[in-house]
Amino acid sequence: MHSKEADDGLLYSWSHHSLAVTSVHIGKGGRRVRVATASLDQTCRLYSLASGELLLTVVFDISITAVTMDNAEYFIFCGSTDGRIFTIGLFEPPSTSEYHFSKERDKSHVFIGHNKAVLGLSVSADGRTLVSGSQDSTAKIWNIASRQCIRTLNHKGSVTNVLLLPKYESLNMKKLNSIQLPRSWKHTICGTDHPDGTWKHTIVGQINETPKNEYPSIKNFVKMIRQESQSDNSLKKQVEELSNQNKALYKLAVDKITD
Predict the structure, then answer these.
(1) What angle do CA 220, 226, 230 make, to 5 degrees?
(2) Residue 29 DSSP symbol
(3) Residue 171: which residues within 8 A CB-CB, separation 6 or more?
(4) DSSP characters for 160-227?
């Protein structure tokens, strides 16, 4: 671990992994926050963000592609390239700074269900539910206590990341008000005759004032735009006809004067 003054914003640089780091998770411990990292070197490492110290190294028999922790930081969840998800308990951490995860000894701490690499992990706020995303085109919802898959969500491609969010009131679709849109522009065409026989026109727009409780729906708004577009085309044709008539009258008047 290399530490550096905050002149350029860099506090620590950890170089314990020997292969690519595939995932990083920062806990919610405030000043005592811990950071978990996963790597293709078949290890997961836990650091203290306050001191920069390496707290724990967990060694597996397979490359690790995803890592996360619950909010209380009781457990680390590590996803592997073969689809297994491993659990490491931090409430009673290993007595040594390096722990070797064993298939036989720790078989009760494994989630089995994916058949390809796990790329994303997320734990619910209450620490009861785990969600995983995988290259097998599925996202799975797990009960952490029983390690049973509750539901599988199928996708058309690899699920590269997952995130569980609290249920905010602002995300409650049933309570969202309908989108209020102003009514379409009311077009007025003004024209001016010129001695060269041309007729120039200008379209002036003005929004109709509509009571707040009478705003149209999006569907009706689109329908109104189409109707006004059609009426505009009809109005333009009438303007062209009037322009041609004005040109004819202008030519006739000039011919009468020059005779």
Answers:
(1) 145
(2) -
(3) 165
(4) ---------GGG-GGGPPPPP-PPPEEEEEEEEE-TTS-EEEEEEEEEPP--GGGPPPHHHHHHHHHH
pLDDT digits (tens, 9 = 90+) for 83-121: 999 999 887 767 778 899 888 888 889 999 999 999 999
pTM for this predicted structure: 0.63
The two tokens of residue 38 are: 């996963």
Residue 64, pLDDT above cutoff 70: yes
Pairing of β 2-3 and β 75-80: unpaired
Only one residue has tokens 């735009």, namely 225
Two tokens at 42?
């078949």
What six digits make up the tokens of 124?
């619910």
pLDDT at 183 over 50: no
Are residues 88 and 131 in contact, defined by beta-carbon separation less than 8 angstroms?
Answer: no
Are the beta carbons of 35 and 45 closer than 8 angstroms? no
pLDDT tens digits, 112-153: 999 999 999 999 988 999 999 999 999 999 999 999 999 999
Interatomic CA distance for residues 114 and 192, integer angstroms? 74
What residues contact residue 181 under an 8 Å CB cut-off, 6+ apart? 215, 216, 218, 221
